[in-house]
Amino acid sequence: MPEPIDFYFDFSSPYGYVAAHLIEPLAQRHIRAVRWRPTLLGPAFQVSGNRPLGDQPLKGDYMRHDVPRLCRRYGIPFAWPEPFPIGTVAPARAVYWLWDKDPDEAVRYAKAVYRAYFAEGRNIGDAAVALQVAADEGLDAEALGQALQDPDLKARTKAAVEHAIKLGVFGSPFFLVDEEPFWGVDRLPLMDEWMARGGW
Question: Which residue range forms the structural domain that includes residue 150?
């Protein structure tokens, strides 16, 4: 069995939202699993010197045009949320906690969080909203709420973000395939070919 694809994403990333709809069918074509790894772009930007696309002249305007176009192309529900962008530490921690219990539940929750923000306009940066999404999915929101305050989970999430940066993750979505990095949802076709050909 080939190694899983590591999928790094920030819940405030609209391109990560698109990738969350496309990565698993691509992985299945190559008989690979996907490890969903939430990260936080803020610390990565401090290292790279970058800043959110929405704050950048010209690039921000392009993004606001491009993301709805991509979603129309792939039939993905989308509406610009307000506020945007937001801090997403609460749902990121939640995914790591759920992953230890049941990776399938973690993925289901991650998809629901993305949908809540980019299709339903709910502020998932608010821990109460992140917990409500869990409850809506039939998950144990009470236990999750207690876990979000656990210093060990906070430390684990911080360590995961720092490790991602050490691996070279600087944006969302970002993929590692057998340690080969691919940044951006537009790299999925290239990644598909890379796996099919065994690299080049």
Answer: 5-197
pTM of the model: 0.96
From the list 187, 184, 170, the residue with the least C-alpha distance to 16 is 184
Contact 52, 172 (CB under 8 A): no
Distance CA 147, CA 131 (A): 11
User: Is 48 marked active-site?
Assistant: no
DSSP H helices, 54-140, are 59-74, 89-101, 103-118, 127-136
- Closest Cα to residue 177, out of 13, 50, 35, 20? 35
CATH label of the domain that carries residue 128:
3.40.30.10
Q: How far apart are the first and last CA of the chain?
A: 20
Q: How many domains does the chain have?
A: 1
Q: Three-state DSSP class for 38?
A: strand
Among residues 12, 13, 48, 172, the one annotated as catalytic is: 13
- State which H helix or E strand residue 25 sits in: helix 14-29
Condensed to tens digits (0 to 9), the pLDDT of residues 154-181 reads 999 999 999 999 999 999 999 999 999 9
| Tens of pLDDT, residues 120-141 | 999 999 999 999 999 999 999 9
